[in-house]
Every structure is written in structure tokens, then in C-alpha cells.
Amino acid sequence: MALSRAVESRPPGGHPMNRRRRGGHPPVLDGGQVTRMILKSRWSIRLRQVLSGTAWLVAGILVGCGGGPTHLRVTLEAEQGANEDSPIPVTVLVIYQETAFSDLSRLTASEWFEQAEQRKRDNPEGASFDIITREILPGQRIDEQVIELTGEDAQGLVYAGYNTPGSHRARFNPRKRILVVLGVDDVTVVDLADQED
Predict the structure, then answer these.
(1) Which residue, 131, 130, 182, 140, is CA-closest to 161?
(2) 85-88 contact pairs (CB < 8 A, 24+)
(3) What separation in angstroms does the CA of 112 have from each of 50, 105, 137, 163, 168?
(4) 104, 157 in Cβ contact below 8 A?
(5) C-alpha–C-alpha distance, residues 124 and 139, integer Å
(6) Which tens digit of pLDDT belongs to each residue from 90-139?
(7) What is the pLDDT of residues 124-181, one digit of tens each?
(8) What angle do CA 162, 167, 168 make, to 5 degrees?
(9) Which fold has domain 71-194?
(10) Domain locations in the chain?
(11) Among candidates 96, 176, 47, 166, which has minimal Cα distance to 187?
């Protein structure tokens, strides 16, 4: 008889959480159940946010590991009558250190050529920058020069030694194949294409 009463007292439909009220309405949850559901939902959202942030961080690291260019390809071309029809010394710098770039990008071409020998002596292993120097005549073209680089991230500067006042300095992206154009009274750099190492 006791067994019969125990069976009869069991709520129909199994666990109370699975039971539906008459008429098909969902069960009424008490305050503790609601709180647990909210906390579970919040933890789930937080976990997704953390995993998403971690994925972006890993992606950023992998992109950063790509490194910088391993070669610079540069062509030089001087227009007729450039620099009062005089030879033009040209220096192309690929600079690896941000502090060195900040310092060098403030120099005019005349200041660079005055300091060049000392700066090269201060950079014996090429840790701060790689350099090529050429002299070009008005109307001359120097075909593509290929210079080996370290493969580190880098920024580029060109100095051209004009006789006239001015900075005569131009920036470039070492990842690009470039054309340095020595105009009548100033220098410009034209991006030709992405490098293909």
C-alpha cells in the first residue's frame, strides 16, 4: 500500500523541469532556476568572447611572423637638364630601426651627405640600415639594382644631392619595386609593383 502511494505521488511527466502545465504552457521556474540559467548564458557569451579574442591574437602573431622584404629592387632615372645639368649623387636607405628612421627622416639631403661617412661607420654590421649610393647624370638611366636585405620590417628613404636648396628627400616602401626619378629640381619615387621574392 505504501508503494502504491509512493508511485501515485510521483509527479506525472517525469522531472519537474520537463513537466508542462495543462493546456501546453511551459513550466513556471522559480527564482533560483532563473538565476542559474542567466549565469550559464553569461558564462557562455564570455567564453565565446575570450575564444574569439584569442583567435584574433593568434592570427595577428602569424601575420607578424611573415617578416619584411629580403630584396630591394630599384631603378634610377634622371631627366634631361636635372640638377642644372650636373651629376646627382643618390643614396637609397632601407632602415630597420624605428629610432634610426625617425632620426634620418628629419635630415635634408645635404645634411645626409655631410654626415654619411660617419653614419656608415656607426653602422658597420648593417643593423640600423642597408645602403646603396650611385651617381647619375642628367638623361641617364641605371637599370634595376637588386640589393639583399635582412628580411626584417623596414622603411625606406632616398636622398638626392641637388645643387638647389630643399630637402630633396623621399620616402618609399621597401616591399615595392621602385623607380627613383631625378627630376629637374627634385626627386620622386614611383612604386612599380610588389616585390616577388
Answers:
(1) 182
(2) 85/138, 86/138, 86/163, 87/135, 87/136, 87/137, 87/138, 88/135, 88/136, 88/137, 88/138, 88/160, 88/161, 88/162, 88/182
(3) 49, 10, 20, 14, 10
(4) yes
(5) 34
(6) 999 999 999 999 999 999 999 999 999 999 999 988 889 999 999 999 99
(7) 888 899 999 999 999 999 999 898 898 999 999 999 999 999 999 999 999 999 999 9
(8) 45
(9) Immunoglobulin-like (2.60.40)
(10) 28-64, 71-194
(11) 166
State which amino acid sits at residue 162: Y
SS3 track for the chain: CHHHHHHHHCCCCCCHHHCCCCCCCCCCCCHHHHHHHHHHHHHHHHHHHHHHHHHHHHHHHHHHCCCCCCEEEEEEEECCCHHHHCCEEEEEEEECCHHHHHHHCCCCHHHHHHHHHHHHHCCCCCCCEEEEEEEECCCCEEEEEEEECCCCCCEEEEEECCCCCCCCEEEECCCEEEEEEECCCCEEEEEEEECCC
pTM (predicted TM-score): 0.65
Give which of 33, 169, 179, 17 is closest to 101, Cα–Cα. Answer: 169
Q: Which three cell numbers stand for residue 168?
A: 630633396
Residue count of the chain, please give it.
197
Separation CA 88–CA 168 (nearest Å): 11
- Look at the block and give the residue holding cell 611572423: 65
What one-letter code names the amino acid at 125? Answer: E
Average pLDDT value over all residues in the chain: 79
